[in-house]
Structure to design on (360 residues):
């Protein structure tokens, strides 16, 4: 661990899995899915003001899977500095070097209770070496917070997500108008990154660290976590009208998903009027996503699958619309997530169901 100034003995003691600290999430098993970053399509290089970035070296067609990466470290959301340090120390030397070389721009957290636990493990150390340990822990945490992606077990699960660092994809900078889309695929236990549109040679590959459906102020607040102010066109020249539409979009999305949860709990009592109401909100959400140029987003996939399912249940004039929405969901999910994603498989199932003629 080239960067560390922590004495070897202290490091060994603090990182030994003696049951003192909760364990990290177990490393992904070999599922027969290779882990790769398409270095034949892009290169890493220094940007003007955003550290290292990934740039296309050739034309990349929309839908291309550019990364399919195994995690370097994966931790539960509630993991502490101590848990993280232990997980990093358990990596091979090569992997530790990769971890310590990643960017560290996230600010230290305010919760420093972990320092007391650490002190208890370091009581035979001089204060200099204790400070070095604290610094190391802080740096590991900052690297983790700067580079982690959220890894949900499934879209619908209530289980808390885990957070993972994927070393090649970690070089992707943010844009609120991204040209790639990232998502952890729990079926293959890889982070996948797909081109959202055709990308020209020389263009920087950018993903969105946050939900791009948020209005500017909310996006800015969320991005503070990574310690930078986004300079994309939407953030530098915020348009009040567009922000109002994004706020509306956020509200509509919440209304659709809340109503869906309610319907699932109460399907037997859901009336034709209830279906009509939900379908009206779905139709408005889809229109707004189109107006905002957010057609190629997983939000569109989620809304269209919900709309298709509701449309089939409602029947009548909604059946044709249900098939159209299901087709859109299949296309969007194929492009953003790939054919091995749960979302794509679900969308295909729904599309097939919309094509079954109702019994008269
Ligand atoms: C996941 S890393 C991305 C790779 C990083 N640039 C590097 O050098 O390794 C996230 C960090 O990159 C920088 N970054 C990402 N997107 C940026 C942007 N749009 N503008 C400025 N800095 C950005 C911030 O420092 C952020 O904390």
């Amino acid at each position: 661990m080239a960067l560390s100034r922590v004495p070897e003995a202290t490091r060994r003691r603090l990182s030994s899995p003696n049951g003192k600290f909760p364990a990290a999430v177990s490393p992904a098993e070999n599922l027969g899915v290779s882990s790769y970053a398409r270095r034949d399509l892009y290169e890493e290089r220094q940007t003007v003001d955003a550290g290292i970035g990934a740039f296309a070296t050739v034309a990349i067609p929309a839908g291309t899977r550019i990364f399919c990466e195994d995690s370097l470290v994966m931790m539960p959301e509630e993991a502490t500095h101590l848990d993280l340090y232990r997980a990093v120390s358990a990596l091979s030397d090569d992997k530790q070097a990769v971890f310590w070389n990643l960017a560290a721009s996230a600010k230290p957290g305010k919760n420093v209770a972990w320092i007391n636990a650490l002190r208890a493990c370091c009581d035979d150390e001089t204060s200099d070496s204790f400070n070095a340990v604290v610094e190391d822990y802080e740096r590991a945490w900052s690297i983790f917070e700067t580079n982690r992606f959220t890894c949900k077990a499934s879209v619908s699960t209530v289980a808390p997500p885990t957070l993972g660092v994927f070393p090649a994809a970690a070089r992707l900078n943010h844009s609120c108008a991204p040209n790639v889309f990232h998502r952890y695929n729990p079926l293959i236990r890889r982070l996948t990154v797909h081109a959202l549109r055709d990308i020209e040679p020389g263009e920087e590959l950018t993903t969105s660290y946050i939900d791009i459906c948020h209005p500017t102020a909310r996006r800015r607040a969320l991005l503070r976590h990574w310690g930078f102010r986004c300079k994309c066109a939407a953030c530098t020249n915020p348009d009040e009208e567009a922000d109002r539409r994004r706020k509306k979009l956020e509200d509509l999305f919440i209304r659709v998903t809340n109503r869906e949860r309610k319907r699932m709990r109460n399907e037997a009592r859901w009336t034709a009027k209830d279906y009509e109401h939900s379908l009206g909100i779905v139709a408005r959400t889809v229109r707004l996503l189109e107006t905002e140029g957010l057609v190629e987003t997983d939000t569109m996939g989620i809304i269209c699958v919900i709309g298709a399912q509701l449309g089939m249940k409602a029947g009548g004039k909604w059946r044709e619309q249900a098939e159209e929405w299901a087709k859109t969901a299949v296309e969007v999910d194929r492009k953003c997530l790939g054919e091995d994603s749960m979302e794509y498989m679900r969308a295909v199932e729904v599309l097939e169901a919309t094509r079954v003629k109702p019994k008269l």
